[in-house]
Write a structure and sequence with these properties.
The protein is an all-alpha fold. Helix content is 82%, strand content 1%. The protein has a two-stranded antiparallel sheet. Helix 11 packs antiparallel against helix 12 (316-341).
Amino acid sequence: GRSGRRESLERHWNFYARQLEQWRRRLQLETGQYTEDAAELARRRAAWEATRVAAESLSIAPALDKRVESALAQISLAEQAVSGPMERQSRLTRRANAVEDGIRAGQKAVSAAIDYNDRRLAQIDSPPLWELWQEPAAGVDSLRSITTGLQVEQRFLDDYNAANAGFQQKFNVATLLLLPLLLWLSWRSRKTAADDAEIEASRRVLRRPFSSWFVLVLGAVLLFEPDAPVLRHQVVLLLALIPVLRLLPPVVYQALGPWPYIATGLYLLQHAGLLLVANPLLYRGYLLGLTLLAAVLLAWVMWRRRKRAAVEPAKLSHRLVRLAGWAAIAALLVAAAANLLGNVTLAEMLVSGILESGYVGLVLYALVTVFASVLRLLLARRVLSRFSVVTQHAGPLLQSFTRLLRFAATVAWVTVVLREFRIFRPIRDALVTVLTHELKFGQISLTLGAVLLFFFSVWLAFWVARTVRLILHDEVLPKMSLPRGVGNSISSLTYYALLMAGLFVALVAAGFELSQLTLVVGALGLGIGLGLQNIVNNFVSGLILMF
């Protein structure tokens, strides 16, 4: 749709801005030596000129005078040799500045177009639907606009592929190597029996290795190429229609009924409607029919779920699903009314937001399911049983990783919902304003973003230190011929060293300068000296005993 084209243009200009920045860095690296040489030549010329001025006031030997003239002549030749690359660098820099001005102008134009389109959400921007019969068909101009947009998108895709050719090759190799792994896991899982319900569910997923492979490739494209052209993301999402439906676990169909099939079909019908954009009457009629169809089907699903909810215990997740379903029905009815009255922008936004977010949610759920299944079967293999870390901690590790995956998928889905309903940009701008607001306490300046980054870095340091200590204590050090107690000392000292290093990294990541760190360390030293003497003494004594 039109909003998708504006998003693609925004990515287009941001891509060129990143390319220009990379080109500037390469130019600076390649021509930085010439700048240093020119500065060194200027310094030497000044020294020899000062020597000649001093020699003019004194009577010096002719040989020394010739030496001064010879040195100045050699410096002139060197400056001429350097002046050519410096001039080319200057011309390229001027061209880069001109290109940067054009990119900024394009970014401002796209941002202004997005803001203007957002303001139109509350305005009537087209004639009412019943008046379009009298409007002349603007099919040729609309068709030309669509063709031009596709050409721009194709050009962007070509430029993106050319700029990321090396990454694309590595990505293709990695995805090809992933398929044999999934085939092997599928083959081995069918040969062995398992009483664990989770292992059985994972085996059920990997009985479809090609669908699992395609969903993982889709996730990799969305994860590692978030700024790729919108056309690439849309094509990959459309190709994942059938694999996603095949890989959704039964619990999804138990909770949502036939909604996954309905959401997938409506998503496909929504994109098929883009073929009618050239004719406003046909497009708006198609959009109205799709809106009413989605509302009717969703109401039918909700009615079926209500009958089942009467005999099932109510769960919080089910109540949230019902609430979201009725809210979606209300939004679809508003979209139908907006389309009839002439607010096409609002109608497109509501319909696209509901259908896109519904389908993307299914994709993310399938992706998490496949990834967790692959990891669960890998950890369940006997070949890993010789690692006590895996055998003793596989369950908690897998649960933690699965929760992390679900959290990341939820964040991604919420981001998609906010983007589709046009509230991501104001929320992002408000968060940036809040997180970058500077608070000063004497010589120390802090921001909320820096504080949050500090606590996250400290948590990450604790997690890394604890994991390294576990691996050293359970796997590495017991296999070495060390005296009794030395292994425990090494693992504990490593833990404390990583904590200290992580603390300083967290302070630097939070934006503390060395002078500010000096104040903080001084304050901590004073506090320790006054109130924590016994604790510090005991801690240091423990370290001495370890050594």
